[in-house]
Amino acid sequence: MYGVINKSLKEMVMRQFGESTWQQVMTVANVSEDSFLTMRSYDDQITYALAGATAEVLGLSLEDALRAFGVHWVQSTLQEQYEVLMHATGSDMGGFLRNLNALHDRISSTFLDYRPPQFLVDDLDDGALKVTYLSERKGLTPFVEGLLVGLAQRFNEPMAIEKIEHIPVNEGEQSEFTLRGA
Predict the structure, then answer these.
(1) Which domain holds residue 109?
(2) Residues 37 and 104 in one domain
(3) Domain of 75: which CATH number?
(4) Helical spans, DSSP H, in the chain
(5) How many domains does the chain fold into?
(6) 121 has a pLDDT exceeding 80
């Protein structure tokens, strides 16, 4: 994953819990360097180790830590570093989600070996949205859940995740979220 992800996780821990907690995370993760370069690709295992260590140090399940990180990603990293791209991607949650793959396409030239997830959005007959998340990486569905919560807050659109269904795939991960306005 890219340094921007690791930097954002560090920022979340430091803003909420301080430098000493981040140092504990680094020790538990057995990661020695925390000066991540935004555009540099790092081994996915570094990010997974940092996320697992964050959960352990904070006394959270990995899923809860990833959800919190997803919310942080939207509220801090996207808004502070990618605000122009966010505005260009959509003015409401549905529009943003429908244009998310195009956003990933626009930034693909910025990152070498970029492997973004894909999002498919369908309107259901009952007014709900079905968001399908496809990734070659495993274990990030709770992060996406946090992203969805953060986006609902950003667009001031009350939303409930009614259902999360994990779809078996040979490699990576596929999950379907059913979202309904609250």
Answers:
(1) 67-181
(2) no
(3) 3.90.1520.10
(4) 3-17, 19-29, 44-58, 62-72, 79-81, 83-89, 93-98, 100-107, 141-154
(5) 2
(6) yes
DSSP state of 18: -
How far apart CA 142 and CA 54 sit, in angstroms, is 14
Q: Measure the CA–CA gap between 134 and 97, rounded to whole angstroms.
A: 13
Cα–Cα distance for residue pair 176/37, rounded to 1 Å: 32
- For residue 174, what is the enclosing H or E element? strand 173-181
**What is the C-alpha to C-alpha distance for residues 19 and 21, in angstroms, rounded to an integer?**
5
Does the pTM surpass 0.90? The reply is yes
Q: Is residue 81 domain-shared with residue 16, that is, in the same domain?
A: no
Residue-wise pLDDT for 27-60, tens only, equals: 999 998 888 888 888 999 999 999 999 999 999 9
Residue recorded with tokens 């709900």: 128
* Token representation of residue 25: 């995370």
Q: How far is CA 131 from CA 15, 124, 126, 150, 175, in A?
A: 31, 10, 14, 15, 8
